[in-house]
């Protein structure tokens, strides 16, 4: 995510623990695969301390098939989502994260009982028979509601007017439009079909697979080839100008809202069409782009931020020259999308890297060097500033998108580059991408990779930059000599 003033490889340790344990409701013991114990109620959270109700215990989702209809005038959404999942413990019941009003749930075609929690975020499902650990199941949820009426964790995330809607937000968005295991630890494939009145367009992740035109409405079908974190799934519906092509073998598709003024439309399309060239530039440092398609969308709404939706980031209208914003969101395709965080406390691995790649882009395209940006930050932020009072590797839920997570995170990376040398630094980055590809990454894992690849003891370095609530000393050890 970028806020601007308007100008599966091997399971991670955390996921393996969560899936194996089942995480019983109330923190009690649960059955693991092969254990002879009574089925349990899967936990209402996957175990992330920032948002304890995010994700759910005892299940591992494989895919979402989302079939929704959207009404612009009423802002009503209705539909049915099929969730394919594996039970990771013997389950009497389990939860999905969802905010909308549900009328029916089936498990493997049979009606299932269901309830919603007091907070209206947990959809608790009790199948006709318990689910055995290791077995696969299809869960279908039918619903209809007004997403704008709902909130979670203090967030009112439905972004729409009577002409356009776009589902973009972080760390939560999925529960406003489809039931999900809503945590970065559980990636799944996403297939999206959205029906809207004839003459309107729908844009989503991945590739457009087709349209079914009826008498009054059209169903748009999008599918992404690679699994994704639930908040990175999106759709936008409205009136859009669309352009597409192929660059170095990668298909691209960009869209711009026709609800913008004509001049803003033209500027936004110029910016969106930089997408394939930016990807090609990033590949020179980071290696092959991790997905099969790429693109971008500029909304006519005013979200106040851009978001790195997988394969197709969404942007506010910021003019045609803000290339750094596109760089940031496309860098997230490696850092945040392909390699997702293990817990939300690891968010600097997303935002610090994306911000650093903005600095790197400027360095390679006639701007200041990344080292010059680091030293400017350092010189101009006083030691008493709150900027130095945030633990970058664990900022807390209230400061998960604090400026220090972005700025000090990027500073830490350039300081690391200074400390270990340019060649070793890029070997660290490439090794991190290769070893974590398609999975999740933690701060501890990144620190281990950096030390192993560079051959240096970096414990005090990372402690100073990520955990010490004070301005680092300007020493060579800290990458500032």
Automatic annotation (TrEMBL):
The record's top EC class is hydrolase
| Needed co-factor(s) | Zn(2+)
Q: Which Gene3D superfamilies match?
A: Neutral Protease Domain 2, tricorn interacting facor f3 domain
Give the Enzyme Commission number. 3.4.11.2
Name of the protein described by the UniProt record: Aminopeptidase N
SUPFAM superfamilies registered for this protein in UniProt: Leukotriene A4 hydrolase N-terminal domain (SSF63737), Metalloproteases ('zincins'), catalytic domain (SSF55486)
CDD domains named among the record's database cross-references? M1_APN_like
Q: Which residues does the UniProt record annotate as the domain Peptidase M1 membrane alanine aminopeptidase?
A: 323-465
Segments forming domain Aminopeptidase N-like N-terminal:
63-232
Pfam families from the UniProt entry:
Peptidase_M1 (PF01433), Peptidase_M1_N (PF17900)
Family label: Belongs to the peptidase M1 family.
Q: Which organism is it from?
A: Nocardioides cavernae
Signal peptide: which range, if any?
1-20
Keyword Signal among record annotations: yes
């Amino acid at each position: 995510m970028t806020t601007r003033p308007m100008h599966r490889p091997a399971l991670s340790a955390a996921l393996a623990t969560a899936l194996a344990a089942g995480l019983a409701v109330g923190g009690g013991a649960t059955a693991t695969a092969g254990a002879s114990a009574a089925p349990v109620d899967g936990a209402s959270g996957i175990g992330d301390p920032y948002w304890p109700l995010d994700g759910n215990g005892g299940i591992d989702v494989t895919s979402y098939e989302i079939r929704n209809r959207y009404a612009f005038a009423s802002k009503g959404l209705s539909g049915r989502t099929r969730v394919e999942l594996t039970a990771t413990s013997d389950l009497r019941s389990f939860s999905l994260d969802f905010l909308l009003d549900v009328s029916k749930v089936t498990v493997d075609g049979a009606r299932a009982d269901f309830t919603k929690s007091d907070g209206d975020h947990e959809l608790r499902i009790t199948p006709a028979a318990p689910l055995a650990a290791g077995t696969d199941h299809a869960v279908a949820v039918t619903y209809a509601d007004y997403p704008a009426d709902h909130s979670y964790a203090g967030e009112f995330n439905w972004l729409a007017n009577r002409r356009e809607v776009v589902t973009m937000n972080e760390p939560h968005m999925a529960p406003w439009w489809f039931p999900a295991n809503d945590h970065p630890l559980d990636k799944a494939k996403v297939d999206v079909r959205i029906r809207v009145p004839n003459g309107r367009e729908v844009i989503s992740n991945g590739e457009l697979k087709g349209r079914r035109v009826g008498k009054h409405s059209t169903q748009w079908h999008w599918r992404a080839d690679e699994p994704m974190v639930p908040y990175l799934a999106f759709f936008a519906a409205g009136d859009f100008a669309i352009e597409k092509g192929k660059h170095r073998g990668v298909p691209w598709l960009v869209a711009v809202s026709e609800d913008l003024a004509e001049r803003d439309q033209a500027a936004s399309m110029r910016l969106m069409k930089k997408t394939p060239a930016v990807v090609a530039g990033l590949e020179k440092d980071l290696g092959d782009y991790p997905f099969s398609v790429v693109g971008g969308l500029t909304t006519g709404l005013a979200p106040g931020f851009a978001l790195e939706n997988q394969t197709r980031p969404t942007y506010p209208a910021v003019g045609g020259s803000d290339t750094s914003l596109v760089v940031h969101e496309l860098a997230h395709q490696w850092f945040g999308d392909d390699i997702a965080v293990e817990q939300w406390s690891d968010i600097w691995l997303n935002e610090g890297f994306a911000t650093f790649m903005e600095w790197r882009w400027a360095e390679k395209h006639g701007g200041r060097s990344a080292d010059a940006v680091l030293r400017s930050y350092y010189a101009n932020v006083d030691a008493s500033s709150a900027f130095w009072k945030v633990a970058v590797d664990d900022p807390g839920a209230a400061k998960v998108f604090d400026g220090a997570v972005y700025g000090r995170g990027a500073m830490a990376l350039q300081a690391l580059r200074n400390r270990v040398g340019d060649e070793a630094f890029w070997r660290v980055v490439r090794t991190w991408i290769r070893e974590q590809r398609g999975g999740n990454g933690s701060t501890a894992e990144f620190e281990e990779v950096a030390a192993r690849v560079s051959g240096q003891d970096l414990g005090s370095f990372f402690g100073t930059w990520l955990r010490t609530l004070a301005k680092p000393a300007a020493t060579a050890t800290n990458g500032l000599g």
